[in-house]
Amino acid sequence: MQREELRQYLHEFLQLDKFRDYAPNGLQVEGKAEIRKIVTGVTACQALIDRAVEAGADALLVHHGFFWKNEPEVLTGMKQRRIKTLLLNDINLFGYHLPLDAHPMLGNNAELGRVLGVIEPEAVETVAQGLLWQGGLDSPMTAKDLSALLEQCLGQVPLHLDGGDRSIQKLAWCTGGAQDYIDTAAALGVDAFISGEVSERTFHSAVEQGIHYFSAGHHATERFGIKALGEYLAHEFELEHEFIDIPNPV
């Protein structure tokens, strides 16, 4: 398919105009006009870009791209090397941040709920551009059991901040660096909140409000959406697709 066709399709499919974001969503670096193979990955780091070159990608689709607010505007050092590699190999870079977190069908939050087997997952539409989700478990779990489930599904041990003796049946979650939604999650009356990172203040919020908190990894919680997007595009447009995971313990 043509680059412009893909750009326009994703602009509408991911509803880019709905979101206030920290970086531009859509085509960030222009490459070749015709796209036959796409590579997807979480972050446009040098390792992923190099692997995309090796894979013969015409386009690289990521969740964390370039040109974030408040980052240096000059193309020097690490940033120059990354973009130079893309340009020399005529690879398009597409980045989709909050729109991919929030997408109701294959976004990071929808996919994390699916992987964990959450019942009736839904976005809390009145909070944070629909980025906070909630749902239930089939039956109550202990915090230890939920930790084990997260480890099984995400491939790394989560950090658990103990919210007391309460068992867990109602969950809220937001993938990535959303630990500061813990107070909003507590106000929803859920038993546990899951996100990807943790701050010093998160501990006190969990203890004082009696809500379990699980920091399950920024990268680990955000693998699923971009992979699902690539698989969807491959099916819809008969593109070749490869998801490449660059391990990141954070």
Automatic annotation (TrEMBL):
Q: Which UniProt keywords apply?
A: Metal-binding
Q: What is this protein called in UniProt?
A: GTP cyclohydrolase 1 type 2 homolog
Single GO cellular component term = cytoplasm
What sections of the protein cross the membrane? none
> What is the protein's species of origin?
Shewanella chilikensis
| InterPro entries cross-referenced by the UniProt entry | DUF34/NIF3, DUF34/NIF3_sf
Q: Which Pfam family, any one of them, does this sequence belong to?
A: DUF34_NIF3
Locate the coiled-coil region(s) and give their ranges: none
